Amino acid sequence: MPLTFDDLLTRARALVRGPGSRAVLGIAGSPGAGKTTLAERLTRALNDTGEPWAVQVPMDGFHLADAELDRLGRRDRKGAPDTFDAAGYAALLRRLREETGDVVYAPGFERVLEQPLAGAIPVPPAARLVVTEGNYLLLETGAWARVRAALDEVWFCELPEEERLRRLIARHEEFGKAHDEAVAWVHRSDQRNAELVATTRERADLVVPMTLPGL
């Protein structure tokens, strides 16, 4: 039978093995594939009782600041694997799994500023599931390999290429880029990253077609 959003909710809930335990679900995929959309809708549906049962923690909070990218000479490749603090992200995921007795603060990401925001997301002791999304959760190089080890499952978002590119260009325009600038960035930087992410698809526990009703 075709996969449904209710199937995804059931699978996400089943990751939490027992009372007091916490699981971490990763949502991977190429830029513009719908990772944030899926993470937001899962989290909202899992919290429909009003309790903070699930919390969304984005990988984007571990972008290096623009000042550091300038120092490293990587500003024009922002979004590539080496423009993130992958080791810091892996360390946070381990804390989220293990430190369930206190609030753990995670960084967020401000898309208007295109900058990370330290301590923006509180993960309370009551949270049983952390949903984290990002491009490189299944990458096996460098510190990224530690990320997969900290995740109970990783789902891979898949969207038809033409629609993925259209959404990605529209997102860049929404956050301040002119159309020609957005198109150029997508085809230069984002597409290179998308091709790398696509090679990690086979390592996912589940491939989620983002054409599902409700997404």
Output the CATH homologous superfamily: P-loop containing nucleotide triphosphate hydrolases
Q: What is the overall number of helices?
A: 7
Total beta strand runs = 7
Largest sheet: 5 strands, parallel
Q: Fraction of residues in helices?
A: 25-40%
The CATH level-2 architecture is identified as 3-Layer(aba) Sandwich
The domain count comes to 1
**Envelope shape:** globular
Question: H/E order of the elements?
Answer: HEHEHHEEEHEHHE
Spans of 5+ residues with little confidence (pLDDT < 50)? none
CATH overall fold name: Rossmann fold
Explain what this protein looks like in three dimensions:
- It is a single chain.
- With about 220 residues, the protein is of the alpha/beta class.
- The chain has one domain (about 5-210): P-loop containing nucleotide triphosphate hydrolases (Rossmann fold, 3-Layer(aba) Sandwich).
- The protein has seven helices and seven strands; from the N terminus they run αβαβααβββαβααβ.
- The strands form two sheets. It has a five-stranded parallel beta sheet with strand order 2-5-1-6-7. Strands 3-4 form a two-stranded antiparallel sheet.
- Strand 3 and strand 4 (about 115-125) form a beta hairpin.
- Helix 6 (about 160-175) packs across helix 7 (about 180-200).
- The longest helix is centred in the C-terminal third of the chain and has 20 residues, at about 180-200.
- The model has no long low-confidence stretch (mean pLDDT about 90).
